[in-house]
């Protein structure tokens, strides 16, 4: 590529990274605020999380347009094309994580009506790990940091362990409190949303590792638990 084309491509990449960073920051806030709304019974904050998802969707669409434009105008090859494709995939993943945060916020009104469920006390810690994974995965992408990406992948087990613990506790709780099965199911769905956020952060980290090194990271150890909520 000519010097002019290289400069233009670098500008496009930097713009895409900035958009991913903005989108990621909004998603981190959505996760944090959804959990704050849940633990403080703040329905107004929950509604703000739901409404804020529109901006994240707009960023996702903008990134997709810019990626298509960059490929058409700059015709990137090899490592450059790999990074452009990674941006497009990561944008879609971040958008889905934001949807999970929105789903949590939508359940706040139902769950907060019942405070006797012990697993509620575990959800904030689980959410904090998941949110930190999202931040670290996106930081790794911006910096092309394969080492940080591996650290994110390793943390996924902690989120899975939280989910498994909550799942077992909720099953026991539902057996002993059959009148609260519906509300308990909402708690399980919240835990599942957090578990999926952790999985998606791990997927981003795996992509970052591949973009930075050209090699796939080691295979993750899968949970042996059979999860009927797995889709």
Automatic annotation (TrEMBL):
SUPFAM superfamilies: PhoU-like. Residues 20-108, 124-208 form the PhoU domain. It comes from the Bacteria. Transmembrane segments: none annotated. Coiled coil: none annotated. Keywords: Cytoplasm, Phosphate transport, Transport. It is found in: Cytoplasm. One of its GO terms (cellular component) is cytoplasm. Belongs to the PhoU family. Plays a role in the regulation of phosphate uptake. Homodimer. This is Phosphate-specific transport system accessory protein PhoU.
């Amino acid at each position: 590529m000519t010097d002019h084309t290289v400069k233009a491509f670098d500008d496009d990449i930097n713009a895409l990274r900035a958009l991913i960073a903005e989108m990621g920051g909004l998603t981190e806030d959505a996760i944090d605020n959804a959990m704050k709304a849940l633990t403080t019974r703040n329905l107004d904050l929950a509604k703000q999380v739901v409404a804020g998802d529109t901006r994240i969707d707009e960023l996702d669409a903008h990134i997709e347009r810019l990626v298509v434009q960059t490929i058409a105008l700059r015709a990137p090859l090899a490592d450059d094309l790999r990074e452009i494709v990674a941006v497009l995939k990561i944008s879609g993943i971040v958008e889905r994580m934001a949807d999970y945060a929105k789903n949590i916020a939508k359940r706040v009104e139902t769950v907060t009506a019942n405070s006797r469920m012990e697993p509620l006390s575990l959800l904030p810690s689980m959410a904090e790990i998941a949110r930190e994974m999202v931040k670290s995965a996106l930081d790794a992408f911006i910096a092309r940091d394969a080492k940080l990406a591996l650290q994110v992948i390793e943390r996924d087990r902690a989120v899975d362990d939280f989910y498994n613990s909550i799942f077992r506790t909720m099953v026991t709780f539902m057996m002993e409190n059959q009148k609260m099965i519906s509300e308990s199911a909402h708690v399980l769905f919240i835990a599942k949303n957090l578990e999926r956020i952790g999985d998606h952060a791990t997927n981003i980290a795996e992509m970052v590792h591949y973009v930075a090194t050209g090699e796939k990271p080691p295979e993750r150890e899968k949970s042996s638990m059979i999860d009927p909520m797995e889709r």
